[in-house]
């Protein structure tokens, strides 16, 4: 069944309410577009940032000039499908967001399917088996999660029983002594750092990727490792930022280096990495009727991810003070093109810039 906001009657109701549809091919392609960060810009945990609703309404035509401006959500969050995130944000902002407008930290990792679709992949992080389903949906055919290995042998992590973990329907037939891992991919934040670091090391340091064996020479890393983001911290409804996937990565790297004397080799996605921006530009072009906008405005709260990434990729960055960044002035390490109190002010600033440009042209 379609969720509340996605029923036809509700789309019509929203259209009637605001005189537009959030994402419509009738909207003329624009020469500029927005990429919004989610956590700390539009929402904080379960709470909607109030100015976010007005900001999105403005882009959907509710502005002095009646302009409709294309936008995407570009987040280092994930752990669910693009469809599920679109529904969550649509409900929280009370506006229709299409899954086509959502770029999650792991969305660009779909490029890895070609290489790993028929290999065994250990997918780490997220709630229950959600990342397992995301990876399967992307096209990885042989996906396993740490819970599967813990269920196979509880002694893998003897400090707690695997009973609280999600059980694979194939649990009884899984014998990991016969399953060589071809890659380890972290899709979202680990729910049990100790257990997951242990199991990742088991796979990375194993002979031919078979958990329960150990390579003679740990200096040569055979199992590639991928991270979907490297944020050290992120913003929730808690007053102080929380540890994110990048902190987990540092913990893993530290243990790996201590044990092997070598640095863990890995590839990272998400902001601030160019692969993610290249992917986002293709998405923006697609939702803008195939036209590449000349300017992309990135609105974010995390200087090390949102601002660094946008600046490096030639986008215009706008830093807001509703999330990770709260200090006065600009970020000293990754200064943004503009700093605003919140996302509504950011959108107003951009629309004004663009109106001024139009007048001059
Ligand atoms: O790293 C945690 C992630 O949830 C941050 O998301 O939307 O701030 O990029 P976002
Ligand atoms: Mg953020």
TrEMBL record:
Cellular component aspect of the GO annotation: mitochondrion
Matching Pfam families: Hydrolase_6 (PF13344), Hydrolase_like (PF13242)
Stretches that traverse the bilayer: none
One of the protein's GO biological processes: glycerophospholipid biosynthetic process
Top-rank taxon: Eukaryota
Record protein name field: HAD-like domain-containing protein
